Each structure stands twice: as structure tokens, then as C-alpha cells.
Amino acid sequence: MVDKIVHIGQSVYIKGELSGNEDLTIEGKVDGKITLKDHHLTIGANGRIMAEIHAKTVLVVGEVVGNVVADDKVEVASNGSMKGDIVAPRVVLADGARFKGTVDMERKGAPQQPAATLPPQPKPQQPAMAEMREPVKA
Amino acid sequence: MAFRWKGPEPTAAAGPTEGSSKEGGPKKGGTGEGQPSLALAYALERTLKDGKAQVLDLGVLCGQTATYLAERGARVVLDEFDPPPPRQAPAPGEKPLPPPPIRLEQADASFDLVLAWEMPDFVAQDQLPLLAKEVRRVLKPGGWLLLYAHLKPETPTEAPPRYRVVADDRVAREASSRPVRRRYVHPTRDLERALAGFSIQKTHLQRNQMREIVALKVIPRAE
What we know:
The complex is a heterodimer.
Chain A: E1 5-8, E2 13-19, E3 23-26, E4 29-43, E5 48-60, E6 63-65, E7 68-76, E8 81-83, E9 86-87, E10 90-93, E11 98-104
Parallel strand pairs in A: 1-3, 2-4, 3-4, 4-5, 5-6, 5-7, 6-8, 7-9, 7-10, 8-11, 9-11
Chain B: E1 35-36, H1 38-47, E2 54-57, H2 63-71, E3 75-78, E4 111-117, H3 128-138, E5 139-150, E6 155-158, E7 162-167, E8 170-174, E9 181-183, H4 188-194, E10 198-205, E11 210-217
Parallel strand pairs in B: 2-3, 2-4, 4-5
Antiparallel strand pairs in B: 1-8, 5-11, 6-9, 7-8, 10-11
Helix pairs in contact in B: 3-4
């Protein structure tokens, strides 16, 4: 059996909230919010997304402006562009990809180190420049 | 059914782009790839132990560096710093223009560590204090700055390189496709003067004439 993949074509423009229970490939333009919690979302090379995205995996080959939360993986391909924050346990930013934002790979249920047990910060020391010398200028 | 990407597969050349693993422990030494960086090890040791460290990477985008640090529990902000272009010399009899402002799009006191890599080498001497001031602004009190600065002879132009962290104490310097910029050689005293408000904690001179500097943001008693 082959999983269905829904395709949103290049000429389609959606404004609003998009949610579903199937894998989705977007080549068009979407403004709003995309939720595919257990499924895979691909932003194709022609896709232009301005939305908050939540999916299992997200592949960005086109352009995304907005925050992306993935339960498994986010990948920005080499010709992809993304401006926004990524929260996912696995992240791939390909060579040549354009990205501006934050990468957060915090795992669900991962124990946080309690602040009370943090070791104290080291005291500032005097500048330690003894390990190097200025080049002698002629 | 296993998911298959419908888009292009990452190329073999995309070394720094390998997917992150779920193993987030510190790595030392590794495979010997890259060059040792005691300053990086020093800075990471002091920032990543504090749980959710906020790290600002000002260098050329490197996915592997971002994911490496994020795996270690840091929240990594990627904000490629575009070095300002060189200014025109003033016409005879005219006063030189003040250096253009340098502004980072980040909030005050929001980072535990700023990785500036070699970016200061692409900033003119009179703009260095402006860059350092901006870095100081975005650092939390007690935050750390890591920067590299060459002592190699000045080159007319060069593309800012990309730094790929391969282990806590190793980093690989790679060519990037960023626009070429003039690369300066700043004497150490100029770097020290520019870093007003910082306490330089470590300076290492590598065999390849690279200075590695780790500085701590200090708060004057009056603040």
C-alpha cells in the first residue's frame, strides 16, 4: 500500500488554517497555520509559506517564514530558505541553505538540570596574554 | 511506512549538513578532523554546563555547528553577520566620515555565548569597538565571547570562512560562498582596546598564526 501524498499546486493560494491526516507537498502559497501532527510536510521548490508549522517531519526546499515545530525532523535543503525558529529533535541545515532564526533541539521529557545544582561561575581573572607575543614590526 | 523525502537528497559535498543524531554528549578529539581549539573547549565548558545556554552564532551559516551545539542542550540563534563594506577615503580637505553603525538584531542581555569566529578580521579597525559594543550589549552579564583573529599577512579580499565544530575542542575551517570582503590584521592591542567591558580570559596563538580569544563580559561596579 502506498501512502497518499496530497499536493498543493503552484497556482494555489491558501489563507487560513490548514490541517490534515495525510502527507502533504506544497508548491503554492500558504499564509496562516499548517498542522499535520503525524505526517510529513514538504515545502516544494516553488512553495512560499508564511505560517506557523507543526508536523512530524518538515522538508523545506522552497521558502518559509514562520516557526516550525516538528516531532521528528526538520530539514532545510540546499536551495531552501527559512526565517523563523525550529524546534525539533533532529535538524538538518544543508550546505547553501539560507536560515535565520533559532535552532532548539530540546527533547520531550528530557530531564532539565535543576538550577540549584549548577556550579558557581568562575571568577573573572586578569587578562592572560602571556601565551602570545605581538609580532615585531620592522 | 517509512517516510521518504520527495525533495533533492543532500549532496555528498554537504559535509557540514549531516543530520544530527540524538546523542547529545560532549565529544572530545573525535576523528582528528579539523584543528584543535583550546579556546572553544574553554568557552563551551563554561557555557554548555548550565543547562539551556543561549548561543549566538555570528559566523557563516554552518548547519553542523548549529546542530552540534543544539544537541548539547543549547538554544542556538543563527544570525549571519555581514561585515560592513570598506568606506571610501575622504576627499582632500574633507573630514573623514564617522564609521557606520553596527547593529545586531538581538535583544539586550540575551546570550550566554557569542561565537564571532573570524568576523572581527573583516571589520575595519575603527569599527571594531562598535562590533564589540554590540556583542557586549547582547551578552548576559557573565556571558562569553569567542573570536579568532589572524596574524597572517593582510589579503586584499577573502570570503569569510565557515567554522564547523566537530568536537568540543576541535573545529574545521572551511571556505564559504559568502561575498568577498577585505580582511584586516588587527594587532592584539587593538583587539584588547576594542574589547572594553570584557575581561580576556584566554588567548591562544595557534601554529597557523591564528589568535583565539575568549573574553568574559564584566559589569563595572557602578552598573
